[in-house]
Amino acid sequence: MKTWLKERIGNPGLFTGRKKEIAYFLNWIERIKPELSQSTAILSRRKTGKTALLQRLFNMVFEKNDRVIPFYYEIREADRWLGDFAEDFFLSFIYQYIAFKTRKIEYLSSLRPRNFELAYEISGKEGLDFLKDPIRGMQVRSEKEQADMMWDIARDLPRGIAEHTDERVVQMIDEFQFLNRFIFRDKSCKDRIANHAGTYLGTAEYKNAPMLVTGSWVGWLSRDLLSMLPGRFLFHYLEKLPEYEAMEMVLKYSYLEDIPVTEEIIPLMTGLTEGNPFYIGSLFRSKYQEKDFTSMNGLLETLEFETLHREGGIKGTWMEYVSYALKESNDIHAKKIVLYLSKNRKREVTRDEIRDKLNLEMTDSELEKKLKILINADIIEQGRGNFYYRGVPDNIFDKVFRGVYADEIESFDPKDITNEYKAIIENLQRNNKRLQGEYSHFKGKFAEYRIIDNLRYRVKENQPRFRKMINGLPKNFEFVEYENIWSYSASPIHKRDIQVDIFARAKEDEYSLIGEVKHRKAKFTVKEAEAFFKKAGELMELESVKKAVLFVFSVSGFHKNTLEYLKKQGIAWTDNKNWFERSS
To answer: What DSSP string describes 539-584?
Structure first.
């Protein structure tokens, strides 16, 4: 899939999992065509993949080019005058719309100058003359500094264009909660528009241009939507990654960051991070100079650095939430509440229990107000009713918070954190024995990872050795420096469920590699070979691959009739275990 909008995640290969969410939202976007989808808010804390999901959906919908036009806009965490904000929002949509209609990626470039005159000129040049009137109308309001009218025009433009052209638009607005915090009526940015989100009260109801918004401050955004836009948005909470997706993410980061990880450490890392993509990424990108994911101690030391050290990325992100909450409610009682709920995070706690156990001398309304501040800051959670509360269900937040504030409340020894992490690891190791059967898929993934590791770093310089490790290669075959290597999944926009274990794309005149990997006790069968041959052909069609070698790695070997089929179809094969050993 072509990357039209540059994704903040960086290397597109780092995007992992979220298969359930992508499938759900692609169906949601498909239902925009008959005007059946309702505006939706995606909620989760910072760095859990919301922006990556929106930007990937943008590129998928843009690539599909099927009547639904994606519009992506991020509300930045910086003070802005309403007029400047409205102009930027308006021109962002105009340029993204022109890019979609012309299929010219240069209109999406952040380096391209954007102003009303250029937008007017480009609209005419590209045969989109109906854009000229709204551009001129917006320009007149801008010259007169009629900020409120500018925002009315900008906010309604996506819906208006969809109505005029009988098209559909999906409005993807990132960090929607900042509408009420960083937009001001005056240029000096002193008069904040605290109810700015409310201007979407009517706009959000339209089904020809529904909104897909995100928020990193879950309590804050929920409060704004429920109070200012009641009934306009469905809520979709972005959960942690399923275990198999988390393990796949560990393997991807290990490969792309060139940081070795052993088979034994992968389930421990996914268990300790509880499938949180931010935690996994933070471990691989940690500033800890001695990080090592080939031993339990190396993993533990890196996690402790991220949790307790002042330069830990995990600690830094959580402290943004904590600092906001304590700025709003800066007293020892708030810290005691968070610590108590964190210790008892496996159950819901009543307001009366909090008051009694912590000896809080305050009225019920005062306590409720303090608790709401902590909920809006996402460092505690609302329970099943207004009277119930619970700590954040996250082992790592608990340790970050205690590492910073526990000394103010009770004695604290950093060794306690170390011992708790060790206890979690011991429990995971016990469970690993129970889960051996469930890890068969993971063992195959690890074998893929090792083969990819060799293809990426070693085969080109060790041609004779690696060619001897695989049978049935063409006589003129050479391993090359591949443009991209990873497990292949066809984009959901193709509506074809194609999964190929290894796809190493080479230049057009060189052999690409398409591989199947089996790490199990059973031998590879003819039926599996036929299925692989078929999906490899579909991959070549979808990705326009004209020259490729197909190969199968099966650790337990092949049936005799399977080998006959592989030879007949020109598919290479191997059972040499050196392929998934980390070669020097």
So the answer is: HHHHTT--SEEEEEEETT-B-HHHHHHHHHHT-EEE--GGGGS---
